[in-house]
Amino acid sequence: MSALLRQTRLILRNDLRLLWRELRTGKLKIATSATLLALALLVLHAISILLFTHLQQTPPLGLEAGLWAFFGFLMLGASMNQAIGLFFERADFDLLLSSPVSTRAILLARIAVMSTGAFIGASLLLLPLLNGVIIGFSPMYLFGYVTWISLSIIAACAGVWLTLALVRLLGTRRARVWIQILAAFLGASVYLTFQIQNYFPRADKIAFWSALRTTADWLGFSHLARSGRGEPSELLILASVTALIAFLTARQLAKTFLTGLQESGVKPSRAPRTGGKTYRFSQGLARATFFKDLRLIVRDPLLLSQTLPSLMYILPAFLAFRQFGGTVILAPVAVVIAVQFSTLLADVAATGEDCLDLIRMSPSPETRLRLAKMAAGMALPLAASLILCLVIAAFGRPWLALLAFITGAVTASGCAWLSVARISPTPRKDLLNRNRRRTSITRNILVGILLIGASGGISLVAHGTLWFIGILLLGATALGVIACFTFVHIEEIADEKPLPSWHYPNATPS
C-alpha cells in the first residue's frame, strides 16, 4: 500500500469517527436508537417491496430523474453544511496542513467524509426505494448504488465549490449564515414543489410535471436515471465525470488552502466602521437592548435556517383552504404567524446563557429590560403579520385586516410575556432544541389555548358564519392575555445549589 493511501486511510478513519459522534449527538440523533432506526427501515422496505412488486411496469424515466434530483438537492444541502465546518471551523485543519502528512491525503479524506455524510443523509428514504425496485423489477437496478455513490461525491464537490465561493464573497462567518439558510431553503423549496402542484387544475398539473421533466433532463438527471438502470455507456460517463469533478475539487482545495485563504476564518468579514452612527446610553438602555436583541435574532444562522422556512410551509395550507374561504383565510394565518413566532423569538431573546446575568447587573429596572426583549422577539413576526393583513385590506376587507392584526399583536404579547417572565439560561446553540430546553408544560398549554382561541375566533369572524361565537372567542382570548400580565409575575431563577459543607474543609458549622 502506498504512503498516500495509508495517510488517507488514517485521516479518513479519524474523520469518520467524528462524523459518527456528530450523528449520535446532533440535532437529528439518527443513531441514538438503533432499534427504532432498524424498525423504520424494515417498515419502509416492506412498503416499498410490496408497492413495486404489484406494479406491472417500470416507473417512467422522468419520475426516476425527478427522484434523483430530489435526493441530489438533499445531499447538496448536507454537503454545504459539512464543508464550512470541515474546512473553516474545525480547529485541526491548521495542524494537519503543517504536519508531514500529504496535503492530498488530507483533502481526499475530507472529500470522502463529505461524500459519506451526503450518502448517509439520503439513506433513510433512498435505500428502501432502491431495494424495492431491485426486488420488484430488475437486478439491473443494483447499479443504482453506483449512481448513489457517484451522486454523493458530486454533491460533496459541488458543496465545496459553493462554500468556497461564498467564503470569498462574504467571509467565513457570514458565509456560514447563508449556507444554512440556503440549505434550509433547498429543503423547503422541494417540499413546496411537490405540494403546490396538488392545487393546480389538471391541465396545469400536466404542464407543471412536463416542465419539471424538461428541467431535470436539461440538468442531466435523466442520465443519472439511465445509469441507475444499468446502462453501460451512462455508467461510464458518470464514472468519468465523477472522477474529473473530484480531481478538480481536490486541486482547487489544495491551491486555496496552501495560498493562505484559510486565514479568512479569523479575519473580519467586513472592515470596521470608522464613522457613522454612534450609540449612547443616553438614548435609553431599554431601546439599546431592543435593537441589540433584534440584531442578534436577524443575524443568528440557527434561527434564520429553522424559522424562515417555517413561513414557507404555511403556503400549502393557505392554498388548501383558499378554495373554501378565499383570501380571508390569510386572517387566521396572520394571527398564527404573529403568535407562534413571537413566542419562539421572545424565548430566544430572553433565555441566552448570559442574559440573566446582564439583567441583574443592569441599573435599569428589570421589568423594562424584559419588556424590551419581548418587543425584540415580537418585531419580525408582527411585521410579517402586517404584510398579510395589508394583502387582506387590498382585497376589500380593511376592517378584517385591522381586527386580525390587533388580535395577533395582543395575543402575541401575552404569549411572549409568558416567555420572558421566567428565564432559564440556556446555551445559544441549544435554544431551539426542545429536548434540552427547560420548558414549562403549563406555559405551553396556555400558549396553545390562546393560539387556538385567537385563530379560531378570527376564522369565524372572517367567514361570517357563527360570527358571534368568534367574537366570544376573541373576547375570551383578550381576557386570557390580561390574565397573563396580571397573574404571571417575574420569577427569579435560583442559582445553582451550593455545595454541602463537607466540600469546604475550612468551613465552620453555623
Net shape:
globular
- List the helices and strands in order: HHHHHHHHHHHHHHHHHHH
Low-confidence spans: 27-32, 261-270, 434-438, 493-510
The count of domains is 2
Question: Ends: how far apart?
Answer: 72 Å
Strand content: under 5%
Spatial extent as radius of gyration: 27 Å
Q: How helix-rich are the residues, as a percent range?
A: over 70%
Number of strands: 0
Mean pLDDT: 75
Keywords: Membrane, Transmembrane, Transmembrane helix
Task: Report on this structure.
With 510 residues, the protein is mainly alpha-helical. It has two domains: 3-265, no CATH class; 285-487, no CATH class. It is built from 19 helices and no strands. It has helices at 3-25, 34-54, 61-89, 93-98, 103-121, 123-136, 143-170, 172-196, 202-218, 221-228, 232-258, 285-299, 301-325, 330-350, 355-361, 366-394, 398-421, 441-463, 467-487.
In short:
Keywords: Membrane, Transmembrane, Transmembrane helix. The chain has 510 residues and is mainly α. The protein has 19 helices and no strands.
Task: List strands and helices in order, with pairings.
Blueprint: H1 3-25, H2 34-54, H3 61-89, H4 93-98, H5 103-121, H6 123-136, H7 143-170, H8 172-196, H9 202-218, H10 221-228, H11 232-258, H12 285-299, H13 301-325, H14 330-350, H15 355-361, H16 366-394, H17 398-421, H18 441-463, H19 467-487
Overview features:
single chain, 510 residues, mainly alpha, 19 helices, 0% strand, disordered C terminus, transmembrane helix, transmembrane, membrane
